[in-house]
Amino acid sequence: MNFLPAIIAVTVLGAFPESEANFVPGEVMVKFVSGSDAEKAVREMSLRSPLRLDDFVQVVRHLEASARIPLTVSQVTSGNWLILKIDSETLSRELAERLRGYQNVAEVELLGEDKKPVGYMPPKKIALKFVPGSQEANTISEKLANRDEADFGTLMSKLQQRAESPLKAEVMAQNGLLLQVDLASLTLTLQDRLRSLPSVESTQLNYVMTTF
Questions:
Q1: 132, 69: one domain
Q2: Order of strands across the sheet with 81-86?
Q3: Is residue 176 domain-resident?
Q4: Are residues 173 and 195 in the same domain?
């Protein structure tokens, strides 16, 4: 299938306060409550030499099950803080699969699915087309004509609920959308979910500037 029609309009959903605008998207630092099983495990594994990030898998799996966001650990800092990173590859695949089950979806394509990631990559874009003549396709046509923002906003809200993630959307011709997880907004969601866990003492956004 070919999803390369011209992009007619762009809509970006999700925003965050200016004071939080410089954090590293996709990364959250977490510290566990002293004496908790997770804290003991992290403390024990951080003393091993050489340090193996794979040893932290069980701790991370517990966190991602509670946060409902796929995660990896990228670093252990002084004070036994874990730097968690959103697993964008897994996240993109899961998102595409959820969207395939949305009503009146004709085609879903995960762009660049066959490309092997080099280093950390942002979430992949997902091309989505609706059945011609469906309510969703008509809503996109109205959006392209700049006639109905309200219905388009409702459609995007429903798609985000289906995706279980905040989305950025580029509106395309031929009843299509080009979707991508809003990684910055999802990072704030991840922080909120992690800080609510009883085993977590504290969370922080990572303000160390990096590039993908």
A1: no
A2: 71-77, 81-86, 27-32, 200-205
A3: yes
A4: no
Kindly tell me if the per-residue pLDDT of 5 is higher than 70: no
Mean pLDDT across 156-168: 94
Strand 126-130 relative to strand 105-110, pairing? antiparallel
CATH label of the domain that carries residue 62 = 3.30.70
Helix/strand/coil (H, E, C) string of the chain? CCCCCCEEEEEECCCCCHHHCCCCCCEEEEEECCCCHHHHHHHHHHCCCCCCHHHHHHHHHHHHHHHCCCEEEEEEECCCEEEEEECHHHHHHHHHHHHHCCCCEEEEEECCCCCCCCCCCCCCCEEEEECCCCHHHHHHHHHHCCCCHHHHHHHHHHHHHHHCCCEEEEEECCCEEEEEECHHHHHHHHHHHHHCCCCEEEEEECCCCCCC
What confidence tier does 174 reach under pLDDT thresholds 50, 70, 90? confident
Tell me: pLDDT of 211 over 60. no
Contact 164, 98 (CB under 8 A): yes
How far apart CA 60 and CA 115 sit, in angstroms, is 26
For residues 18-41, give the mean pLDDT: 86
Residue 155 reports pLDDT greater than 90 = yes
- What pLDDT was estimated at residue 150? 82
